[in-house]
Design goal:
It is a single chain. The protein has 368 residues and is mostly helical. Among the domains are: 25-223, MFS general substrate transporter like domains (Growth Hormone, Chain: A); 317-368. It has helices at 2-38, 42-53, 55-58, 62-85, 93-117, 126-153, 159-180, 191-215, 221-235, 242-248, 250-273, 301-308, 316-346, 355-367, and strands at residues 286-288, 294-296. A two-stranded antiparallel sheet has the order 1-2. Helix 2 (42-53) packs parallel to helix 7, helix 4 packs parallel to helix 6 (126-153) and helix 13 (316-346) runs antiparallel to helix 14.
Amino acid sequence: MTVNMAVKEEVTIDGLKQSKSLVGDSVVYIAFMLVGNGCGWFVANSLWQTLANVPEVTQDGRMFGKVTLIVGIVGLVVALFYVLSLARGAMPIRIGQYLALSLITLSIAVFGMLALFWDAGAPQYPVFILATVLGSAVANATFFIVFPLIATFYGGWLIAPVRAGTDVSTLVTSLLAEVQNPTGTKNLFPMAVLYCVYMALSACGLVAWLVILKFRVGLREGAVVEEQEDQKQEELPRGQDQQPQGQGHAEVQDSGRLEAEDCLGELRRRRREQPGESTNTASVGEVVVASGVEVGGDLTLLGKVQYWLRELACPQSLIGPVICACLSQVLQWALVNTITEIGSLMTDPAGCSGASGRETYRIALTSS
């Protein structure tokens, strides 16, 4: 009897621990999902919904084409800045955290600007165009900054809720825009109210991120130490940060040197294995690695470029999925979205500006 009682008590305790762990993981999941919702494509998605609900802004499709062009250009510019930043090495955790905070704050500011001045300067709508630029920059920077930050310094499973949050923002904007204009021809409440709701939801992401930073939610053990070291460096008076920094980052320098030497050795080995090429390539100078360590070598210009772009390397097993993902995004944003609007409006027997076509487009956009 005593043994059975002890076993039952142990099972009960284990069950309580599992329940608490499940609740805790759920709270963490929701917090990071709010972060993904707070930045990502939230602003950009809200602008697409505005084009569907306010025909005056669309201007017979001209604004739609202009917005699509802006989104593409901003995406390429942000990607270029990211590639250039690879030459500086890995981003410190504190800088990544501050940049993520800035992205969410910028989203809130853009929603506030739209709530007040979204229709200013009609029919050119300069505020709407500016919001498109900023919203696209936030969306692309989220994938280049926030996702690597979470994957590197936080639990790997936390990528899922952040990515889910970006999808939730798409769902939220579609559903709320559908509620605002279910027929596609008449808004039941002003756009300013809708933007204020978006701003409040984005503010929830800001609060969630501040809580994550305050209590170091989801941080890996090594990341906690690095974050504390960065914080100490920030708190030191100017002029006194050189000595601690040199001591505190000695191991990082050593590891950076080893990584550089391994990379250089691999590149030289591959070059020697290539048939028809001489192994006595003329020296073209020194290679400066991201951590500031100079490594002598005889790499060609192509070798240097390959080294600087090493963080973009993709395993052969993932080349297929990466290509498919790229094609799906290109087809969705460059082709399907455009065809959706034009095709929906062409379904109206009365003309391309008829009420039936607008309703079809509204339903199609929400369904997507």
